[in-house]
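[audit] Reproducing an earlier prediction to check determinism. Same input, same settings, fresh worker. If the tokens differ from the archived copy the diff job will pick it up downstream; this log only records the rerun itself.
[audit] input (140 residues):
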Amino acid sequence: MARAKVLRGLVLAMGYACVAIGLFHVLLGNASIPGAESAGATIDSLGRFFGAIFAGYGLAWLWAARQSPIPAAAVRVLTGVFLLGALGRLLSLAVDGWPHDFQVALGVLELVLSPLLFWLADAEEKALRGRVTQAVPQSP
């Protein structure tokens, strides 16, 4: 049951954080990205567009959090997208070098949270199956 509570808390946190971060990027454009304040209109447009997509990604996390139980398949897909973003950061590091320290911290967070979310993905489904099994009377 503790794993199920941790899963629910993380899924909600992911949803709210992604929606907030996405809207922050939509509203502030280049100013929301450390070191990109003077990147120009093309990067500003791209950042605002991806901010909207990220807010939508957060809404998908919130949708998953509203289900009972939280669907493991949805958590795995959303976590896979999250991990792909972290791998993109690693590719960028290999190609272009170290980004701003804040981006490094985000990458570490993404690499740490992804395995945890994969591990917890079916926690509520398992907890529900356990309760159903206990409620079913055993035949003689």
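[audit] rerun output stored. Observation attached for the diff report: Helices lie at 2-28, 41-65, 72-96, 101-120, 123-135.
[audit] end
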